[in-house]
Write a structure and sequence with these properties.
This protein is of the alpha+beta class and 183 residues long. The chain contains four helices and nine strands; from the N terminus they run H-E-E-E-E-E-E-H-E-E-H-E-H. The longest helix has 14 residues.
């Protein structure tokens, strides 16, 4: 299964519909501070030569990739949200408005698990108390503060499991894509 153009547009539409760029429209998003050693060299965001304009690459996800997203809060909650084994496809890297995007797709079972984990951690009751920390090889590469609008979008019936992950640095986005892609 490839991430279709409709899926890409739907994922980007979900981000735009909730009014902010980030993890499906989060209130605040920051790249990790300790990303040294991640990524490759500079190059076109499409991953190929400048002459090739085939768009971003899409691949199946390596279920053993060292990528994880966790829900944390000030009350001590630290719960898994998803990891590479929960994902189906990855697409990237593409540039938009100064950020480098990677999209991941959860299959139907992954969407159900994602929503259950949000609920069990308490993020559906008090989203503002939670942060999603995404790590690659144990290094935080993305931190997202949740809000009501974001959680409502992620738990709504219109969300089909496409998450758009923007990164401020292309090398970080490329590292995430490269490590997730089953090559």
């Amino acid at each position: 299964m490839d991430i279709s153009r409709r899926g890409v547009l739907g994922g980007l539409g979900a981000v735009c519909a909730v009014g902010a760029v980030g993890f499906a429209g989060a209130a605040t998003v920051t790249d990790g501070e300790t990303v040294g050693g991640l990524g490759g060299g500079a190059g076109p965001a499409g991953g190929g030569s400048e002459e090739a304009d085939d768009g971003p690459e899409s691949a199946a996800v390596d279920p053993d990739a060292p990528f994880e997203a966790r829900l944390t809060s000030d009350d001590g909650t630290d719960a898994p949200l998803f990891d590479a084994s929960d994902l189906d496809r990855v697409k990237g890297v593409f540039a938009e408005e100064g950020e480098y995007l990677v999209q991941v797709v959860l299959p139907d079972a992954g969407v159900d698990s994602f929503r259950t984990r949000l609920d069990e951690a308490g993020a559906t009751d008090d989203p503002a108390a939670f942060v999603v920390s995404m790590t690659l090889d144990g290094t935080e590469v993305r931190r997202v503060e949740l809000d009501r609008e974001t959680v409502d979008a992620l738990t709504g019936s219109d969300w089909e499991g496409v998450l758009t992950l923007p990164f401020g640095e292309e090398r970080v986005a490329r590292s995430v894509y490269d490590r997730l892609a089953d090559s």
